[in-house]
Amino acid sequence: MPEFVLTVARFGFLVLLWIFVFTVVGVIRRDLFSGARSKSIVASPRGVGGAVLQGRPAKAKRGKAARQLVVTAGQLAGTRITLGEAPITIGRAEDSTLVITDDFASARHARLVPRDGQWFVEDLGSTNGTYLDRGKVSGPTPVPLGVPIRIGRTSLELRP
Amino acid sequence: MSRIPTGWKTRRNAELGLLAFAMSIVAVFGATVEANQFDEIRMTSWIPAALVGILFLGLHVVVRFTAPFADPVLLPAVALINGIGVGFLRRLDLAKAIANKQPEPGIFAGTGGRQLAWTLASLILAAILLLVIRDHKIVSRYAYTLGLVGIVLVMIPAVLPSSISEVNGAKLWIRFGSFSIQPGEFAKLALVSFFAYYLVRKREVLSLASRRFLGIDLPRGRDLGPVVTVWLLSLLVLVFEKDLGTALLYFGLFVVTLYVATERASWLIIGLVLFFGGVYLAYLLGASVGGPFANFYDRAEVWLDPFARANYERVSGSSYQLVQGLLGLGSGGLFGAGPGAGSPGKVPEVRTDFIFAGLGEEIGLFGLTALLVCYLLIVERGLRAALAVRDSFGKLVAGGLAFTLGLQVFVILGGITGLIPLTGQTTPFLSAGGSSLMANWLLVAMLLRISDAARQPATGTGPDRAGPKKAPVQLHGAMTEVIKP
């Protein structure tokens, strides 16, 4: 076997090893910047861009019934829960309907309950409170469509 | 793959491509070995690489169907290391056969062939784990059983008579004739699961109900009792079994899991102080009292100055092995002698503990660093899965497993290169040895399972993917689906 071939094999192997390492890093890199997670890390502020938050949330349309609960901000942004007859529990506990991993959320944080076609939000004695738009929720409060419910860093709203 | 929503990238094809690339590197390694050993590259040189490749392809198919969202990098990186391990062991067999003028060993003969067979067995085990455990949270149901199994596995060799369990002074084995297993390797997996489960149950209590002592928050004894008991027991047994490396592994695992669960840096400080204090005490005791600590004292002396004549000519625990390893690494230099061109046979235990020294002579610092980066990437992907997965049990298991793997590589590599005192540990996926290979492949299978859970699209609290279900998935009476791609 000529010396030249041996040298090529010896260095070729090392070069291949490093090409492999960089290919792996490339795959990881592509994974980081695309795919699973939402494109923007921070949710867009209200009224700025994003079809998600268009329309003035404060002017709630009373006429339509809520069909969906949409998470608009926080780790679960983009999750949509189709509303039925059953109440929805929100919190860190794993048996909640919507499990939020948020440092500011309690295990059983809040509950959404339907009553005669209207959804009510109710705080379940959470540490950091539940907010409907700007106001703190103390008792069962009716939730108009499109008004954000804030729990820790997570925002939810009802959609028709 | 109908149950994967369109628009979601599973990255399985990237995994397949990387796997093919890794296998071609293993084939190039084999061919270079033959070129150096036989002066010709024969047509049969690709057979071991192809066999290994088929095995990994099989596991890839299992991953494709049972864990479609698993991390695409884990499997190829591990496959590369495992493949090079098999190739290097076969290279040692070839060199031995040539030296003894024997015929070339068959594909499944010799250490390399055995390693190939063990790889097959390990991959089957890993596939079974992926098939049986569809959701890593199931493991938490058997946490106490696993904890008990872990202790029993660690204790078996200590209880058995030395004739069955002792190899090279360390009582770590169960031998049946020529066949031997090292139960401690498997115990590590069971103990991680137990620690994770217990700490998840107690994490709030551990980090909230604490007593302040010397500016450090210490949890109440009754909350910590079972974990400390398990840890002390395994540690006592390990000191009794004279295997310091594994004891260090369990200790590190214990401290890190505790740190991850409570998010308190004080645990790391306590752990490090305890560890260094204990080691120094053992060293002093070894110098003055001897007895069970003499072994450790010898190793520390050898570590401090391996080239000293007194250490080299020591009757028990001579620095001969360490020196041979260091000389091997040194003669490898930056780029190594080339696969198959070195003389790793000069290093004792080059098939197991010192495989990195043997490899280092042939692929040099440049090649060793690439392998180390592969280990680093495996550990990083494990920690990544731990960060991304949503349930605390999964976080602790993935974090604990990834850390164990990293610590094990550090302990053995640090020992070989003279950074820390040498303790006998297997190099994960590389060293000859079935138990280590199987246990580490099970570890990787568990990481694959958790990374699958971590990377799958968020559809509420994790749908049950065990069977085909109609989308949207029904969860606690509410319909859930995801709008964003």
Automatic annotation (TrEMBL), chain A:
Listed InterPro entries: Cell_Proc_Reg/RNA_Proc, FHA_dom, SMAD_FHA_dom_sf
Membrane-spanning intervals of the chain: 6-28
Stored SMART domains: FHA
Keywords, in A-Z order: Membrane, Phosphoprotein, Transmembrane, Transmembrane helix
UniProt protein name: FHA domain-containing protein
Entry annotated with the keyword Transmembrane: yes
Keyword Phosphoprotein: yes
Coiled-coil boundaries: none
Pfam family, one: FHA
Organism: Actinoplanes lutulentus
FHA domain: residues covered: 88-137
SUPFAM superfamilies (alphabetical): SMAD/FHA domain
UniProtKB/TrEMBL annotation, chain B:
Annotated localization: Membrane
TM region positions: 45-66, 73-92, 112-133, 142-160, 180-200, 221-238, 244-261, 268-289, 354-379, 400-423, 429-448
UniProt record, GO biological process: cell division; regulation of cell shape
GO cellular component: cell division site; plasma membrane
Membrane topology value: Multi-pass membrane protein
Example GO molecular function: lipid-linked peptidoglycan transporter activity
Domain of life: Bacteria
Signal sequence extent: none
Transcription is among the record's keywords: no
Keywords: Cell shape, Membrane, Transmembrane, Transmembrane helix
Name recorded for this polypeptide: Cell elongation-specific peptidoglycan biosynthesis regulator RodA
Origin species: Actinoplanes lutulentus
